[in-house]
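Hey Z.,

So I finally got round to the fe (ii) ion thing we talked about over coffee. Here's the setup:
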Amino acid sequence: MTVPENTHAPTHYGDWRDDFYRQGYVVLKGVIPREKAAYYRQKELDWLQSFNLGLDLNDPTTWTAEHLPQSFKAGMYLNYCAAHERYVWEARQEPAILDAFAQIWGTEELLVSFDTINVTFPGRTDVTWAPWPHVDQAPERPGLSCVQGFLNLSEAGPKDGGLLLMEGSSAHFDEFFALNPPDRSQGIGAKHYDFYPFREEHVRWYEQEKGCRLVKVCAEPGDLILWDSRSMHYAAFPEPESQTIRTIIYVCYTPAALATEEDRQKKAELFRRWETTTHWPHCNIHGHGKAKIGDEVDPNERDEPLEKPVLNDRLLKLAGVKTY
Ligand SMILES: [Fe+2]
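And the result:
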C-alpha cells in the first residue's frame, strides 16, 4: 500500500474531509456523548490520584510537580503504563473515532498509536511554558503520512489549555522545506525523526507569505480533533483566566498495511511491555521506557496498568499484536 498523495484535497468529498484538507485540521463535534466524555475524564483524574502523592483536585496549591507523576510539557504522561489503561483502550475503540480514521484512509484495517493522555492543570506557577511550534512529520517524508488527533474531554475555550494550529500550513509543507532545507545536523535521535521545530521567522513566513493564521482550536467534551501532521502546531497552556483542568486522550491511526513486519513486531513487543510511544502508529516505533529520577527508575513507576485492558480481537489488531 502506498501513502495517498492527497496533499491538497484531491477530491471533493462533500463532508468534513474537505475542511480537514483545506485547513489542515478539523473538529468533529460530539463523536461521543458528553456523559461518556465525563467518564473518561474522571478515569484520567482518578489515575492521577492513584499515585497517592497528595494531589487534591479541590486544592490548586497541590497542582504542582511534587504531587504529580512526571510528565512531558507539564501534562503528557509518557510513562507509568499510562497509554495502556483500560479506559484509554476503550476510547481507542470508540466506533465513531475508528470510523473517522477509516474515512480518511479508506480502510478499516488500522493500527493505533500508543499515544498517551494529557492532563494540564491551570494556574501552575511551578512550571515555565514557551511556545514550541513544530510539525510531527519528517520533512523528508512526502504527502499525507500521518493524521494526529485527540478526544477532547473538557471545555477548551479561547483561554483554556488546548491546541494552537497554523491553519492552512499543511499545504505549504513541501514548499517550506524546499526553501528551508531541514537542518538535520543537530543529532536528532531516531525517536525525533518525525519532528521538526520552527523558528520565529518561519512562523512569520507561514503568516505573511502564505496568509496562514494561528488559531486556537476550541472544542467541547466529546469532540474529536484531527490534524494533518504537516500542520504547524503546539499546545496552548491555560491562560490565567482559565480554571479548567485540560483532559484529553490522544488518538492516532494509520493503515496497518503501511507497517513493515519488523515494525509491527516492535510495536507488539512495546505493547507487551505496556509502553507509550510517539503518535506514529505504523512506523517510527520507539518506546518512552520507564520514568527516571537521575539514573534510577522512578519509584512511582509501574509494571502494568492500574486497570488492564480487555484483550479482544479488535484491540490486538489495532495494537499490531495480531495481523489483519
Ligand atoms: Fe506535536
